[in-house]
Design brief:
By secondary structure, the chain is of the alpha/beta class. The chain has one domain: Flavin prenyltransferase-like (Rossmann fold, 3-Layer(aba) Sandwich). The protein is built from 7 helices and 6 strands. The chain has a 6-stranded parallel beta sheet with strand order 3-2-1-4-5-6, sandwiched between helices. The longest helix has 15 residues. It is globular. The model has no long low-confidence stretch (mean pLDDT about 95). Its EC number is 2.5.1.129. Belongs to the UbiX/PAD1 family.
Amino acid sequence: MTHQSTKPIALAITGASGAPYALRLLESLVQANRRVYLMVSKAAQVVMPMETELSFPSRPAEAEAMLREYLGAAEGQVRVFGREQWTAPVASGSNPPEAMVICPCSTGTLSAIASGASNNLIERAADVVLKEQRKLILMVRETPFSPIHLENMLKLSRLGVVIMPASPGFYNRPQTVADLVDFMVARVLSHLGIDNPLNRPWGQ
């Protein structure tokens, strides 16, 4: 059954390689009629036009307008917040999102969350989700992992964070890069409790 919550999902895009995952996840959330609070790091703005056809505007209002056109989103369905917009709902435990996904999640962001840093809105939003015991999903994108990366992931996993490295499977015999992207996005949506047609479950 599709999740019927009216609370928004927070989505953060950081500068690790993997922007196609983020855009496909955002598209899927919009298609599922979910509201999205979107945050994009400065590094992600650099990486996005390298990996996709989009250049992400720096001004939140311009970014929202671009995404409405690109995704066909309803007015106000996708809200974009600046990196130091401390008045954003995600900055306070009094109004946390239902869940938060960082996709892709750089190892620098991973480290900041594991240490409790709140130097920007993405880190603060993750800190809020942790302290309010909401679901936090990190699609970590790096290879190989150093002992520092692994220790940070273990620390957060023990706190209930879902550590989901971008490791698509091949049992569905993917034919395109888009198929590999969909595999991972489907896994994220599943953990959010959102039905989706992107991937055939194992055994079906």
